[in-house]
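Narrative of accomplishments. A recurring question from our advisory board has been how the design workflow behaves on a single, concrete structure rather than in aggregate. To address it, we present the structure tokens for one chain from the evaluation set, followed by the sequence designed for it. No filtering or post-editing was applied between the two.
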């Protein structure tokens, strides 16, 4: 085990094979999502795909950095720290937008705790704040002079993410319960429940990952989570892989296509005006 001067470097000898394998898995998932997005014209999925790309770049940089042991350079070290840290925020952005589309296609907007018009805006703004804080903090970690402040900023970003994910889960579960009880003209015709379950799974894994990262940085470089590499693969890489593959199996693009079909026989022009759907 290698002890280092500050949290921007590793407290262990990082595994090259582990980083390469994870990068390949994210690459496969990202290609699958790109193909589904283009085929279904579900452009709101772009942030999710960028999340996958960030994971690929992050773990590729980690493999390069691992190969530099024990003389790490700033470039690969910074790239892996920043890209792996912020990728889940990009996944979360698409998760938030998916719920709004489920509300529209089921005509169940009235059962939401937050007005659908504000739903995506509120959660995406929170996601952006979290993204910027985590990116800035992760970038500061690789400099010994700014590492302590970087750690604090990362924890602030993670707290923001945890708060908004908690609010999102409460909103989503409440909507699910109320729509199940009351129904709607369209809900019976739409397989919305399986998409809700997919949202719960993906939201939960991002939530657990954020909790893990907060505890990891709160314990500091001498804590057990930053002393052993396998923790980050279990509670970050594996959880994000689960999120990506859940959305391959239950693809939210189905909701997008239902919206497109609805639009062709519906005069609800606000869908087009608000940019929820794009048509050929």
């Amino acid at each position: 085990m290698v002890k280092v001067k500050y949290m921007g470097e590793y407290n262990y000898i990082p595994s090259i094979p582990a980083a390469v394998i994870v990068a390949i898995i994210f690459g496969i998932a990202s290609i699958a999502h790109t193909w589904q997005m283009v085929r279904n014209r579900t452009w709101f999925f772009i942030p999710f795909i960028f999340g996958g790309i960030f994971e690929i770049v992050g773990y590729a940089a980690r493999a390069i950095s691992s190969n530099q042991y024990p003389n790490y350079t700033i470039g690969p070290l910074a790239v892996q720290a920043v890209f792996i840290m912020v990728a889940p925020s990009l996944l979360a952005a698409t998760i938030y937008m998916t719920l709004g589309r489920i509300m529209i296609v089921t005509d169940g907007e009235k059962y939401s705790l937050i007005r659908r018009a504000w739903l995506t805006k509120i959660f995406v703004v929170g996601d952006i704040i979290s993204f910027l804080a985590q990116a800035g903090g992760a970038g500061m970690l690789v400099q010994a002079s700014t590492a302590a402040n970087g750690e604090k900023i990362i924890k602030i970003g993670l707290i923001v993410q945890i708060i908004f994910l908690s609010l999102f889960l409460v909103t989503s579960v409440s909507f699910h319960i109320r729509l199940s009880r009351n129904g709607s003209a369209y809900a019976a015709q739409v397989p919305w429940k399986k998409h809700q379950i997919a949202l719960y799974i993906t939201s939960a894994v991002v939530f657990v990952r954020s909790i893990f990262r907060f505890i990891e940085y709160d314990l500091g470089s001498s804590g057990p989570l930053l002393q052993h590499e396998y923790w980050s693969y279990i509670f970050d890489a594996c959880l994000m892989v689960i999120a990506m593959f859940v959305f391959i199996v239950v693809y939210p693009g189905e909701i997008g296509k239902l919206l497109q079909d609805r639009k062709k026989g519906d005069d609800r022009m606000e869908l087009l005006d608000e940019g929820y759907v794009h048509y050929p």
